[in-house]
Design goal:
This protein has 479 residues and is α+β, with helices and mostly antiparallel strands. It has three domains: 198 residues, no CATH class; 92 residues, Distorted Sandwich (Calcium-transporting ATPase, cytoplasmic transduction domain A), CATH 2.70.150; 121 residues, Calcium-transporting ATPase, cytoplasmic domain N, CATH 3.40.1110. 53% of the residues lie in helices and 18% in strands. The protein has 14 helices and 15 strands. The strands form three sheets. The chain has a six-stranded antiparallel sheet with strand order 2-1-3-9-4-7, with no helix packed on it. The longest helix is centred in the N-terminal third of the chain and has 54 residues. The protein is elongated and about 105 Å long. The termini are far apart. The relative contact order is 0.08. The N terminus is likely disordered.
């Protein structure tokens, strides 16, 4: 019996998606365990090493040497492990030189020196682990943005399936509150979509037929029928995931320089140590050569600065595509800002309420808030917030109808009220001869009609973030 191609593709995509989730989860668990073990070894080893110096004063050199030996064993185990892993993978890095320096110091009973070498290297490895685990947790968070189930129109019937089974060309129904499983084009419907997870734009974006929508975004308004345009693996969400992985693997110019010379640096140092031993016949001098040549500061400073920068960027919602950009940032001469959500809070507030035809300001606001209280649109939330106690929960609402992206109508305590865009309200709600003055250029404006006549207008704007003005002024001074 032959399988239908669509079924085969769906099964394959579902299997790959499941494998991706399992792989990321397993990576996180394995690396978290290694991180915990190294952290325990680092803390315990550092504590014992510190006590070895104290013991030298209190109990004598024998106890001090024993504690230093214990610290060297605790801290040296992770270093030797990583050096062996590099050797087995046929790559020569700085871990090998550090391991040789550690072994050399250990064999000459310089346990304190051996422990210090291992401590620097283990701290460096812990910092790198932290960066990698953080990047993969970002990926896991991205994977959670995609919905698990979705409604698909197949042969004229709506079927709920796993989101991983959706194929290019299929028509999916995205209800209010649902996430989009993949990139596509709106075929039918009008709504607002929250794209903040992808773009950082906190204000929902209006979508209508013909507009592009993206995986990982959330429908906040009306029903949308979306034609999936690409496979899940080619979606914008997946590209961002790849970008995070690329940033984790990328290196700054300084780090690339270290990597480039690490392959021959270790053999050269070994050769020099061999020459010292050959000409002096003094093994302690050869060992000193290895210890001095161990690049602990370089190995430690690079990852620590990198992780600090990436963590600071992540806290403010910035995804770094390539870490080389962090060094390039010092040479930036021009900064370009978008407005919403960057210099502003992305949270609308009411600036002014205009009343018309004898309707009082508070009545305009309370009528608008009564209808907007059943809407999830950001403008609606701002109006309700501004109305405060003017909006009463006991208000009777009847025949309420919301047109996504346009406005809302209904009976408020027996009064016919319309709230929304000026053009839509004029066409849908005003009696013949009624009209609002042109309010274009005012930014966000919603108008209110009462019993078919203009009642007022509410003016809204995004609020500037605290400190935004100071940042702009500081940048101007840096020019």
């Amino acid at each position: 019996m032959r399988s239908h191609p669509l079924e085969t593709d769906s099964a394959t995509i579902k299997q790959k998606s499941t494998m991706a989730h399992a792989f990321v989860k397993k990576m996180l668990e394995t690396e978290a365990q290694r991180y915990r073990l190294q952290m325990i070894a680092c803390i315990a080893g550092s504590f014992v090493l510190a006590n070895s110096y104290l013991a030298a004063r209190l109990y004598g050199p024998e106890i001090s040497a024993l504690l230093a030996l214990s610290a060297a064993v605790l801290l040296g185990a992770p270093l030797i492990y990583h050096a062996l892993v590099d050797l087995l993978s046929e790559s020569v890095e700085l871990n090998e030189l550090a391991a040789l320096s550690f072994v050399a110091a250990f064999c000459t009973a310089e346990y304190n020196v051996a422990a210090m070498i291992a401590l620097f290297m283990v701290i460096s490895q812990l910092i790198e682990f932290r960066s990698q685990v953080g990047a993969r947790r970002n990926i896991e968070a991205l994977l959670r943005l995609a919905p698990k189930r979705v409604l698909v129109d197949r042969n004229g019937e709506l079927t709920e399936i796993d989101a991983s089974e959706v194929c290019p060309g299929e028509l999916v129904h995205i209800r209010p509150g649902d996430g989009l499983p993949g990139d596509g084009i709106v075929e039918e419907g009008l709504s607002t979509v929250n794209e903040s997870a992808l773009t950082g734009e906190s204000m929902p974006v209006e979508k209508k037929a013909g507009d592009h929508v993206y995986a990982g975004t959330v429908n906040e308004g009306g029903l949308l029928r979306v034609r999936i345009a690409a496979e899940i693996k080619d979606s914008t969400l997946e590209k961002i995931k790849e970008m995070i992985l690329h940033a984790e693997e990328s290196r700054t110019p300084a780090m690339r320089l270290v990597d480039r010379y690490a392959a021959w640096y270790t053999p050269v140092v070994l050769a020099l140590a061999g020459l010292v031993l050959f000409f002096t016949h003094d093994i302690s001098r050869a060992i000193a050569m290895l210890v001095v040549a161990c690049p602990c500061t370089i190995v430690l400073s690079g990852p620590s600065a990198l992780v600090a920068a990436l963590s600071a960027a992540a806290r403010v919602g910035v995804i770094v595509k390539d870490v080389s950009a962090l060094e390039e940032a010092s040479r930036v001469t021009t900064v370009v800002f978008d407005k919403t959500g960057t210099l502003t809070t992305g949270k609308l507030g009411v600036d002014m309420v205009e009343s018309l035809n004898g309707v009082k300001r508070d009545e305009v606001l309370s009528l608008a808030a009564a209808l907007e209280s059943v809407s999830t649109h950001p403008v609606a939330r701002a109006v309700v917030r501004e109305a405060g106690t003017l909006h009463k929960a006991s208000t009777r609402l009847e025949a309420v109808h919301e047109e996504p992206g346009m406005g809302i109508t209904g009976m408020v305590d027996g009064t016919w009220v319309c709230v929304g865009r000026q053009e839509w309200i004029t066409a849908q709600c005003l009696e013949q001869g009624g009209a609002f003055e042109n309010r274009r250029g005012w930014g966000s404006v919603v108008v209110v009609a009462k019993e078919g006549a203009p009642a007022g207008a509410i003016y809204l704007s995004d609020t500037v973030k605290e400190g935004a003005t100071g940042i702009i002024n500081a940048l101007k001074k840096e020019r």
